[in-house]
Amino acid sequence: MNRLLKRLREHKDELLLVLKRPEVPLHTNGSERDIRGHVKKRKVSGSTRSEEGRRCRDTFMSLKNTCRKLGMSFWKYLQERINGGPFVPLAELINQR
C-alpha cells in the first residue's frame, strides 16, 4: 500500500493534468487505435523493402489518420496537394480546433 501511495505522489502532476486541461484523454485508446491499421497491414504484407519505403508508408498512414480525425477526405486532400490546388495545411486546421 505504501508503494502505491508513493507512486501516486510521484505521478501526481501527470494524474491531475486532466483537471487543468480537460482535452487530455484519460486513456490511450486513441493512440492504440491509430496504430492498429498500421500493425494489421504490416502483419499481412510484411515490412517494406527499404527505409525510404517505410518512411513513405508511415507518412501516408499518418496523413490518412489525421485527415480522418479532422473529418476530411484523405484522397481529396492528397489530390489538391499533388495538383497544386487550394488547401489549408493540416497543422493550421489542427491549431484551429
From TrEMBL:
It comes from the Bacteria. Residues 2-54 form the Transposase IS66 central domain. InterPro entries: Transposase-related (IPR052344), Transposase_IS66_central (IPR004291). It holds the Pfam family DDE_Tnp_IS66. Residues 27-37 have a biased composition (Basic and acidic residues). Residues 27-53 are annotated as: Disordered. Transmembrane segments: none annotated. This is Transposase IS66 central domain-containing protein.
